[in-house]
Amino acid sequence: MPSPSLAASLHAAEVGINQLSADEDVLNFLRTGENASTVYSRLYQLRNQQDFNAYFRLFSNDGKFEAKHRHPSFQGIGDSFLKYRLGVHEGVIDHLSPLDDGAIYSLSKTIREDGEILGYLTFNFSVNDINDFLQTKGSNYVLVNRNNRVILSDNSFFRTMTRLNNEPLLDSRISRIGNRYFMLNERPLGFSGLTIYGVSSFDVIGSLIVIELVAFIVMLAFMVYFLRRISSSAAKTSLKTFDELFISLKHYRENNKLLYLEVENEDMKPFVQQYNNLLTVVEDLLVKNIELEKQSNIAEIKQLQSQFNPHFMFNILDTIKYMISIDPDKAYSMIIKLSRLLRYSLDYSDNSMAILAQDLVYIKDYLKLQRVRLGKQFTYEIIAPDKELYKVPKLVIQPMVENSINHGYVQGQEFKLRIEIKAVNDQLIIIIEDNGAGIPKGQLKQIRSNLKTLKEDYRHVGIMNSHKRIRLLFGEPYGIKISSEENVGTKIVMTLKAVRV
């Protein structure tokens, strides 16, 4: 059913809101109105990470400063009422507000500093967008709030209800609603107060039960018939088939491999054929399940591959704008490199792997763009003697290079970046090392924890995306490790499976 994805989406939004509420740039904006472009970038970054459209609003307690991207038809509850509701809460709260075409579901939080309220942050989600999101996941569902009010459903029987008034029977999952019976699979969505029910009508379940009973009776009659046919002279041969059946089931449990039975007795032939047919069906289902899991991984890899840091785009476009007036030829060269890099990142072909030499061409384009922006104090070196022999996930290295520059480069100081790639046994080791500012111990500890648990971190999206792509493609123990010392530098080690061309 779709609820785990919805629960994960709402939880990710809650985590992002809590992180933004403690962000120093956000706090400074609410105090002075400064860093507006940075704050907008952070807000849009969290918005773009959601599975459905999000409309944010950040405003100071005195109303002087505001950053917003609001739903076109949403007027929202008044600021005074919102402040009243948020005033007694330390965490994120949720609420519903009317829209002309449905309702808006909001997650809001009070932003405080030393006990003083600086402002408020709200993320709004259109209920219609949530409905579209749930429908893409399949299954029949009913979404209710903490008061059992029906918010959404893809079942016409529930859409007409104001509240879900169910009467549980002997099994708490089976309920009578009106004059009909349903099986409800309940899943609360965490802090939000929302609950989603997977719905199965007993009109369908009853038919399935009847079919199963008929099948059981037929199978029982089948077994009785064959038991009566077993004579003392044929008992040993017939029972051998049952022994082979149990051996086959035990083999599957221990080795996860299906064994077909051979027909050695004509009396048992129908039973053996039926069992072998059942194994064929199970084998087909296993193949389909593996293919579905593969397609799901491919879709997630493509989504992670497409995420490009907006800060880099802003900085490069500003540099191009400046270079147009002083050196048009260099500006033109930068535009060509940026165009190639973007086209490469947006290539959604089924093959997510590229020859290392090809990937390094685009990384060099990226480094040349950064060198124009940062000046001669930025130098780099790439050592990859076997670049023509191996394949790597497309643009999996670039976010690590970008991270080193963003967190290591200090204005006015020499900054060296070194990339070394080598094959060791069946692994491809990629080392990105710099002599920059380094990462504070507390922040480094948090990054390592997030890499271990695959937890989302909006401050280091590039590192997490590359780590997830490596894990999805190759599994454990492949991935990213990072070490750093303040005022000395940072070293990132990426371990990939060595895939030869």
What does it look like?
By secondary structure, this protein is an alpha+beta fold. It has 4 domains: 3-127, PAS domain (Beta-Lactamase, 2-Layer Sandwich); 139-204, no CATH class; 230-301; 306-500, Histidine kinase-like ATPase, C-terminal domain (Heat Shock Protein 90), CATH 3.30.565.10. The protein has 15 helices and 19 strands. The strands form 4 sheets. Strands 7-6-11-10-9-8 form a 6-stranded antiparallel β-sheet. Strand 15 (415-424) and strand 16 form a beta hairpin. Helix 9 packs antiparallel against helix 15 (461-474), helix 10 (310-326) runs antiparallel to helix 11 (328-345) and helix 11 runs antiparallel to helix 12. The two termini are 40 Å apart.
List its salient traits:
501 residues, alpha+beta, Beta-Lactamase, five-stranded antiparallel β-sheet
**Lateral strand order in the biggest sheet:** 7-6-11-10-9-8
User: How is the main sheet built?
Assistant: 6 strands, antiparallel
Q: Share of helix among residues? A: 40-55%
* Measured distance between first and last alpha carbons: 40 Å
Number of beta-strand segments:
19
CATH class of the largest domain: Alpha Beta
* Low-confidence runs: none
Tell me which CATH architecture of the largest domain applies here.
Answer: 2-Layer Sandwich
The total count of helices amounts to: 15
How would you state the average pLDDT, rounded? 78
Strand content: 15-25%
* Shape estimate: flat
Question: Rg, please?
Answer: 30 Å
Structural category: alpha+beta
The CATH superfamily of the largest domain bears the name: Histidine kinase-like ATPase, C-terminal domain
Tally the structural domains: 4
CATH third-tier fold name of the largest domain: Heat Shock Protein 90
